[in-house]
Each structure stands twice: as C-alpha cells, then as structure tokens.
Amino acid sequence: MLECVINISEGRRLDVIAEIRSGLGNDLLDIHSDYHHHRSVFTTVGTDIPRQLAQLCARAFDLREHVGVHPRIGIIDVVPFVPLDETTMQEALAARNEFAEYAATELGIPSFFYGPERDLPEIRKRAFVDLEPDTGPNRAHPTAGAICVGARQVLVAYNVWLKNARIEDGRLIARKLRSREVRTLGLQLGDEIQISMNLTAPDVVGPADVYDEIAKLAEISRAELVGLVPARALAQIPKVRWSELDLSKEKTIEWCLAARNRALQNLD
C-alpha cells in the first residue's frame, strides 16, 4: 500500500477545502489546514486520490493569489508517495513517475522529481533557476505553478510554538536543530514564532526529542502534529506525554488505516 501526503497551497478558503474533501471518499485518512502557512495537507492512500485532488485543486485555486509563510512552487505543491507495509520503494517511484506524467499530459503542469535524484530543499532552491522540470512544460503553469513529486520513507511533520520569542530566536533555534534527520524553519505566524519541522527519520529523532531540545533553548507555548505519525514512533514516547506533544493513537497511520478498512467493509 502507498501513502500519499499531498500538500496544497490553500489553507484559508476552508469552504472550498471542505467541498473538495467531501468527494474524496475513504482513502482520505486525514486533512490539516493552516491559515498562516496557507496550506492544507491531505494524507491519503492509493494512487487515484492524488490525481483527483490535483485536478480539483488546479481548477479551484490560483497561485498568483497566494500569500503565506511556507515555501511553495505550486498549488499542488508537494506530492510524495510513501511505501507502507510490504510495498517497496520501487513501487513508490513508479507511482511518482506515473503521477508526474499524468500532471503533464492531463493538467499541463510541470513536475520536479525528488527521491534518489535530489531532495525537496534542492528543488525549492533551484526550480526554474538552473533546474528544469523532469516532466511537462519547461515553464510554470500560469495559475498552478509546478509540482514537487517524490518518493520517500515515512516522515513526521511537526510544529512547536515559542513563548515570548522574536523571529531571530526562532531562526537561531531552527539552525541549531537542523540535521540530516530534522529539517527546520523558524517562522513568524501572526504574533507568534513557530519552529516548523520535518522529522525525516522519526524512529531516530521523534517529536519528543525535538520538543525537549527546543525546551532547553526557549519557553514553549504548544506543539502540533501535522498529518499522521507512525505507530512505532508513538510507541517510543511515554503515554503520559502524548497530550503535551499533540499525539494520540488516533493520529497514527495504522489507526486511520484500520478505520478506513472498517468503513470499506461496512460498504460491502
């Protein structure tokens, strides 16, 4: 089975997001929208919903009207395919390539690959500067921009807000935390400072680890999980800390997949 965590550059028109969500069925496991990031993260399984979602969002949203703190190169900004269970990385790469071809031929949107070729931060730096798309037109779509289409292992998207901090504090902490396993940004969201992170090896460095490192450097207001967490990463954290870290068994990939399977059985 393939998970696909689709990042859409729209987090404010929640009525439109809700309308899109209503048509996606049981293969949509989770959705998280953020006003300041101006971004919605759809956690799905399979290869059909990414295409359906891409088509709907390309029609509904316009990158030229987008203003948000999160880096982006397109409306359908990031589309990573993630192998679960017995699925292989080769299958994820095949799904990635097929999606990119669909985006090029059916939607006219160029795609940049990440995975074995390069990582996502490299695309953000080089796209349309000295890096041409891997599929589709060699220029950005006028309203949809371009897509970062990837194949990767499971990661955890995680945010921590600071109390009584300045943006300089957030950026300094982000730099100190940054490593091969932790990608970070220090961001100002309204009057608050956020450390926004992708934990690329959550079995090695998980939410509790980064939370505790930040707590050594600043006072923390709250934490937030974006999307889902693998159950094995949750199991490494004492249950008494789950609420503090915005974690629960209901926010695991495995719990949401089991709920999906029960819903599908009830349809039969």
Features:
268 residues; Alpha-Beta Plaits; 25% strand; 2 domains; alpha+beta; Formiminotransferase-cyclodeaminase, Chain B, domain 1
Write up this protein.
This protein has 268 residues and is α+β, with helices and mostly antiparallel strands. It folds into 2 domains: 2-151, 2-Layer Sandwich (Formiminotransferase-cyclodeaminase, Chain B, domain 1); 156-255, Formiminotransferase, C-terminal subdomain (Alpha-Beta Plaits, 2-Layer Sandwich), CATH 3.30.70.670. Helix content is 33%, strand content 25%. The chain is built from 8 helices and 10 strands. It has helices spanning 14-22, 48-60, 89-107, 120-126, 167-177, 207-215, 231-235, 253-267, and strands spanning 2-8, 28-34, 39-45, 76-83, 111-114, 147-151, 156-162, 182-189, 192-199, 220-226. The strands form 2 sheets. The chain has a 6-stranded mixed sheet with strand order 2-3-1-4-6-5. The longest helix is centred in the middle third of the chain and has 19 residues, at 89-107. It is globular, with a radius of gyration of 18 Å. The two termini are 20 Å apart. The model has no long low-confidence stretch (mean pLDDT 95).
Quick summary of this structure?
The chain is α+β, with helices and mostly antiparallel strands and 268 residues long. Helix content is 33%, strand content 25%. It folds into two domains: 2-151, Formiminotransferase-cyclodeaminase, Chain B, domain 1 (2-Layer Sandwich); 156-255, Alpha-Beta Plaits, CATH 3.30.70.
Mean pLDDT across every amino acid position: 95
Proportion of residues in β-strands: 25-35%
CATH class of the largest domain: Alpha Beta
* Low-confidence segments: none
Q: What's the N-to-C terminus distance?
A: 20 Å
Largest sheet data = 6 strands, mixed
**Counting H and I runs of at least 4 residues, what is the number of helices?**
8
Query: From the 3D coordinates, which CATH architecture of the largest domain would you assign?
Result: 2-Layer Sandwich
**Radius of gyration over C-alpha positions, nearest whole angstrom:** 18 Å
- Oligomer state of the chains in this structure: single chain
